[in-house]
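Colleagues,

For the teaching module next term, I've prepared a clean inverse folding example: a structure given as tokens, and then the sequence designed for it. I'd like students to try predicting residues themselves before seeing the answer, so please don't circulate the second half yet.
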């Protein structure tokens, strides 16, 4: 869909694209929730966004963390939003609004 593995696509564009398909956005950048232009699609759709609280994790560690917290992630997604959650090593924590 997006060229170059979406590396040059603004965050608000890929977030809006996914939300329009009923997807739940996942980011490695927790600062995304503090930037109005990027969090606005989440707000407008009453959606939930998840982000990993450590950008330095290896791919396998990211997958392991998401898998370990899949039930908490599912519960948060079902609750709806707008909301943002940090996926931490030991828990999933609501951090916005």
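(Answer key — instructors only)
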């Amino acid at each position: 869909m997006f060229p170059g593995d979406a590396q040059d696509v603004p965050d608000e564009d890929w977030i809006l694209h996914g939300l329009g398909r009923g997807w739940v956005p996942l980011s490695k950048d927790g600062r995304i929730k503090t930037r109005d232009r990027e969090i606005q699609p989440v707000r407008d759709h009453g959606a939930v966004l998840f982000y990993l609280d450590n950008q330095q994790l290896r791919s396998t560690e990211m997958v392991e963390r998401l898998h370990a917290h899949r039930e908490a992630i599912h519960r948060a997604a079902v609750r709806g939003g707008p909301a943002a959650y940090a996926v931490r090593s030991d828990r999933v924590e609501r951090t916005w609004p």
